[in-house]
UniProtKB/TrEMBL annotation:
The protein's name: Uncharacterized protein
Record keywords: Signal
Family, as annotated: Belongs to the peptidase S8 family.
Cross-referenced Gene3D superfamilies: 3.50.30.30, Peptidase S8 propeptide/proteinase inhibitor I9 (3.30.70.80), Peptidase S8/S53 domain (3.40.50.200)
Organism: Kingdonia uniflora
Residue intervals of the Inhibitor I9 domain: 2-74
Peptidase S8/S53 domain: residues covered: 102-300
Gene Ontology MF terms: serine-type endopeptidase activity
GO terms under biological process: proteolysis
CDD domains found in the cross-reference section: PA_subtilisin_like
Superkingdom to which the source organism belongs: Eukaryota
Key word Magnesium present: no
Length: 415
C-alpha cells in the first residue's frame, strides 16, 4: 500500500476515482460502491460498478483481473472413521487432541448454546489469538468460552444484491443449521448419552475434539453466500490467527483459476484450508476440486436405520425408515395404480379413512412426503432405493424388488 494512504480502504477508494467514459454514447453510470477491502486473503476489493466503470477499471495498469460475485453452495462431510483416529494412539494422542489448534469455520454461523460447544475439560485460550468481541443480535459475550473463542459475520456482498433483505439473525448465530452441523463435525466437544431417538446411543465428538473454534458467518438463509463475503471471511480468519480453515462450500460452473484465490493466500501463510469436493454422483465428473487445499469427497454414514413392514400373511419386509418412533398400525393397505405418484392431494383425499398408501418415488420425494400428510392417511410405503428421507407420519422405504409382494398382498385384501 502506498504511504500516502492511511488504510487499504482509502487506497482502494482512490483507485475507484475512475476516468470518465464517453458519456454521450453510454447511459449514466451506476455510482461505484466499495463494500469490502482485502489485504490478507488477496490484495483487492469488492465493489458495485456499472459495466462502463468495470471496463475502465480493467484497463488500469495494476489491475490483474476482475471476477463476478459468484454464488456458493453448501456441502457437508462425514465423520473421520476412515482416518483411523483412535484413542489407542496416532494423530489424536500425538496432537493432544488438537488442544492448541485454532480452526476457523467459514459457513452459515453457529448455534452457540449447543452442548457441542461447551468448554468442559479445556485449558486456557492460546495467547496468540487476536480476536476481539463484537456485540451482535442474539450473540452475547457470555456465549464465548474456551471452546468457541470467536465469531464474526459478513453480509455486505449479499446486501449489495438486495438492500431489502431481512436477516433472521444479523449476527454469527446460525440461520440454516449447516454451519452448526459442520462446526460440530470439525471440533465438537465430547457429549455422552447421544442418540437418534434411542438409536446408536453413545458418546459423540468432533474430528478435533479439543481444538478451539472461530466461526465466520458468510452464508445466509435469505441471500445465500457470495464470493465477496467468503473472501472477507477468509481475510479476517487469517488476520485473527487461525491455524486451519474449514470451508464446506463449493462453486458450481466457475472456472478453476477463479476459485482458489483465498486458499492460495492461506497456503502462502502456512494455514491449511480443508474443503469439500462433493460427490453428487452418476456423471463422469462428480467432484468440484480446489487447488492449494486439502479436499475431501463426500460420503455416507456406516449405518442404516431399519424399518420393518409386516403384512397380515406373516411376511415381513425389511426396509429403511427415519420415522423417529415405533409405530404399530393394524389398518388397511391401499394400492391404486392411478394414485401411486402420491402427488395429488385431491386424489389422495378420496381414500377411505385410516389407510396406508403405496407410493412410487418420483424426482421430488420431499413433495410426495408432504402431500401424503392427509388426515385419512396414517402411514405410507415408498418404493425407492433412497434411504435418506424423514417421514412425518409412520413410513418405510422398501426396495423395488419387494414391490410385487406388497402389491399382490394389497390386491388380495380388497373387499
Amino acid at each position: 500500500m502506498p504511504k500516502a494512504f492511511s488504510s487499504h480502504y482509502h487506497w482502494n477508494s482512490a483507485i475507484l476515482n475512475l476516468p470518465k467514459t464517453d458519456s454521450d454514447k453510454v447511459s449514466t453510470p451506476v455510482p461505484s460502491k466499495l463494500f469490502y477491502t482485502y489485504n490478507r486473503a488477496i490484495h483487492g476489493f469488492s465493489v458495485i460498478l456499472s459495466p462502463e466503470e468495470l471496463e475502465a477499471l480493467k484497463k488500469m495498469p495494476r489491475c490483474i483481473t476482475a471476477y463476478t460475485n459468484h454464488t456458493l453452495h453448501a456441502d457437508t462431510i462425514r465423520t473421520t472413521d476412515f482416518l483411523s483416529l483412535s484413542k489407542a494412539g496416532g494423530l489424536w494422542q500425538a496432537s493432544n487432541y488438537c488442544t492448541y489448534a485454532i480452526i476457523g469455520v467459514i459457513d452459515s454461523g453457529v448455534w452457540p448454546v449447543s452442548a457441542s460447544f461447551k468448554d468442559d475439560g479445556m485449558g486456557e485460550i492460546p495467547r496468540r489469538w487476536k480476536w476481539t468481541y463484537e456485540p451482535s443480535v442474539q450473540f452475547k459475550s457470555l456465549m464465548y468460552n474456551r471452546k468457541l473463542i470467536g465469531a464474526r459475520y459478513f453480509n455486505k456482498g449479499v446486501l449489495s444484491q438486495d438492500l431489502n433483505i431481512s436477516f433472521v439473525y444479523n449476527s454469527p448465530r446460525d440461520e440454516t443449521g449447516h454451519g452448526t452441523h459442520i462446526t460440530s463435525i470439525v471440533a465438537r466437544n465430547y457429549i455422552r448419552g447421544v442418540s437418534y431417538f434411542g438409536y446408536a446411543k453413545g458418546t459423540t465428538r468432533g474430528t478435533a475434539p479439543c481444538a478451539r473454534l472461530a466461526v465466520y458467518k458468510v452464508t445466509w438463509l435469505r441471500g445465500g453466500s457470495l464470493t465477496s463475503d467468503v473472501i472477507v471471511g477468509t481475510n479476517q480468519a487469517l488476520a485473527d490467527g487461525v491455524d486451519i480453515i474449514s470451508m464446506s462450500m463449493s462453486f458450481q460452473g466457475v472456472l478453476s483459476y477463479e476459485d482458489p484465490i483465498t486458499s492460495f493466500a492461506a497456503m502462502e501463510k502456512g494455514v491449511l484450508v480443508s474443503s469439500l469436493v462433493g460427490n453428487r454422483g452418476s456423471n463422469l465428473m462428480t467432484v468440484v476440486g480446489n487447488l492449494w487445499s486439502l479436499t475431501v469427497g463426500a460420503s455416507t454414514i456406516g449405518r442404516q436405520l431399519a424399518g420393518s413392514l409386516t403384512l397380515d400373511n406373516g411376511k415381513t419386509i425389511i426396509g429403511w425408515s427415519l420415522f423417529p418412533r415405533r409405530a404399530f398400525l393394524n389398518v388397511s393397505l391401499v394400492y391404486n395404480e392411478t394414485l401411486t405418484g402420491c402427488n395429488s392431494p385431491t386424489l389422495l383425499s378420496e381414500f377411505a379413512n385410516n389407510v396406508i398408501v403405496v407410493c412410487f418415488v418420483g424426482p421430488r420425494i420431499n413433495n410426495q412426503i408432504s402431500t401424503v400428510i392427509e388426515p385419512k392417511i396414517i402411514g405410507d410405503i415408498f418404493i425407492s432405493t433412497d434411504k435418506r428421507e424423514e417421514y412425518r407420519i409412520p413410513g418405510v422405504t422398501i426396495k423395488p424388488m419387494e414391490t410385487p409382494t406388497v402389491i399382490n398382498y394389497a390386491k388380495s385384501t380388497i373387499d
